[in-house]
Structure formats: structure tokens, C-alpha cells
Amino acid sequence: MPPPKRIQVARTGEQEYELRLDETRVPLGRAQIKSLLLQLTEALLPGSGLSKKALEANLAWLRKLETVDDPGMQTLLAEVDPDDLLVVLKAAEDNEALHGKVFTNMPANKARMCREDLQFRMAEPPPEYLANLAIERVMLVARRLAQNERLRFGG
Predict the structure, then answer these.
(1) To which H or E segment does residue 85 belong?
(2) pTM score, two decimals?
(3) pLDDT for 62-116, tens place per residue?
(4) Where would you tag: which of 4, 103, 120, 127 has the fewest CB atoms within 10 A of its CB?
């Protein structure tokens, strides 16, 4: 089979996408697109910047989140991708202060569901590259909120 001449991805709905390989159309959900992106990144750039050292630096940055004021943490939790939050919490599973900060700023039912997801969906630690990407996306949201004065560190 020859490789496709034209490859495209199009958004077709709120959480729906379509991968187009010439005339072939493959419907994909958000999770599938995310997984494809991560697999492509790992295949094209194995280990580039997504190393254990980068993960350690990102985990160190997460300690700053322990100091975020409660209203800012609630805003952050509302704006980050829930899957990214799960990966971050799993990557930082030894950081009880961060877990406490996150869970005390969630509604009780959402905190319970998040704990269950950590236990069952995230039973295995995420690959380093996935943890790094999730942490970096959370960091971007936190920085944007801090710039807009909707989140304060040291509170």
C-alpha cells in the first residue's frame, strides 16, 4: 500500500475529529487524537526534552502550586483538562501537600471521582513524556491565570 499523499485532521464537533488520509476518513474522539499526538511525538522525538531530568524540574515546579491561594486553585482546576490533572496527580503521587491542596478545592463528589480515577484509570504511572506534557500544559494555564491576576502564588 503506498503512503497517503495528503494527511489532514479536522475538527467535526465539540469532542470529535476526523483523520483524513487521501479519501479515507477516520472519525476520532478527543482521547484518540491526544493519544495519537503523544505517540507521534514519542516516535519523532524520542526522549528529546522529555527526559527524567525534565520531569524532575517539572515536578519541582509543581511544588509552587501548593502555595496557590484557594480561589486561584479553584479557577485552575476549572480550566485544566481533567486528564492532564489526573496525570499530574499521578506523577506527583508522593506530594501529599499538592494532593491536599487540589482535593480540598474540589467539590466532594468530584474529589471522590478523581481519587477513584487515580486508583483505577491511573493504576500504572504515566510514561515520562506524558507526565511532562501534562505538567507543562497545567503550568501554561497557571501562568496565564497568574498574569491575569486570577491566581496568586504564596497564598
Answers:
(1) helix 82-91
(2) 0.66
(3) 888 999 999 999 999 999 999 999 999 998 888 999 999 999 999 999 999 999 9
(4) 120
Which H/E stretch holds residue 90?
helix 82-91
55 close to 132: Cβ distance less than 8 angstroms? yes
Q: How far apart are CA 129 and CA 51, in angstroms?
A: 7
Half-sphere exposure of 69 (CA within 13 A, CB side): 10
Q: Distance between CA atoms of 42 and 2, rounded to whole angstroms?
A: 24
Distances (CA, A) of 118 to 32, 83, 126, 127: 20, 10, 11, 15
* CB burial readout 72-86, b (16+ within 10 A) else e: bbbbbbeebeebbbb
Q: Cell digits for 55?
A: 520531569
The helices-and-strands tally (H runs, E runs) of the chain is: 7, 3
Rg for the chain, CA atoms, rounded: 18
